[in-house]
Amino acid sequence: MIGVYRRDDLPRGTRVATLALWQVADPGNVGTLVRSAAAFGAAVALSPGCADPTGPKALRASMGALFGVPLGDFDTAPGRRVALVPRGGTPLTEVELEGDVVFVLGAERAGLPPEVLDRCDVHASIPQSDDAESLNVAMAGTIALYERARRA
Question: Looking at the domain assignment, is residue 8 inside a domain?
Fold first, then answer.
C-alpha cells in the first residue's frame, strides 16, 4: 500500500496532554509514542534531532496514528512540564497531573540535558523493580499517559 499526503496537512496543535520528545532519534520509538498519544488523546511535540515521524519505520510503528495526532514544537507545548527521569524524581504516582501536562522525555542513552531539566516544573520517575535496569522511552511515555488517564 502506498499513501500520498502533504506534511502541511498533518494535524497541528495541542491537547491537554502532550509528549514532548527531546532528540529521540530512534524512529521506532517516535512512531510508538505517536501511537500511544493517539490511544490517550494526547499530542506530540518534537525537538530538533528527533527522528522524522513521517519516515517509513516511524510511520509503521505509529500504525497510521500519525494522521490523527497533533504534532507541535518542543519549546511551545503548553502546560506544566513533567520531566521523566530514570531515577531520583518524585514518584509519578505522587505528581499533580491535572490540567495541561507536558511529559518531557529524552533519548534513551543521553536522557535530558540539564538545560532542558531546568525548564521543567517537576522531575518524575516511574517506580520500578530493583531488577529492572530502566524502561525504554516509548514505554515510559505510555505509562505516563496511562497514569494521567487513570486519574481522570
Answer: no
What CATH number should be reported for the domain holding residue 78? 3.40.1280.10
Task: Note down the domain range covering 128.
Answer: 14-151
Residue 41 falls inside a structural domain: yes
Q: Of the candidates 131, 144, 50, 38, which has an alpha carbon nearest to the alpha carbon of residue 91?
A: 144
Residue 106 lies in a domain: yes
Interacting residues of 94 by C-beta distance below 8 A, sequence separation 6+ = none
Residue 23 grid cell: 532528540
Q: Using an 8 Å Cβ cutoff, are 23 and 52 in contact?
A: no
Q: What is the number of domains present in the chain?
A: 1
Place 64 in a pLDDT band, splitting at 50, 70 and 90: confident
Query: Would the CA dihedral through 33, 31, 50, 7 be positive or negative?
Result: negative
Given a cut of 70, whether residue 129 has pLDDT beyond it is no
For the cut 50, the answer to whether the pLDDT of residue 115 exceeds it is yes
Nearest to 54 by CA among 98, 112, 5: 5
Q: At 124, list the grid cell.
A: 518524575
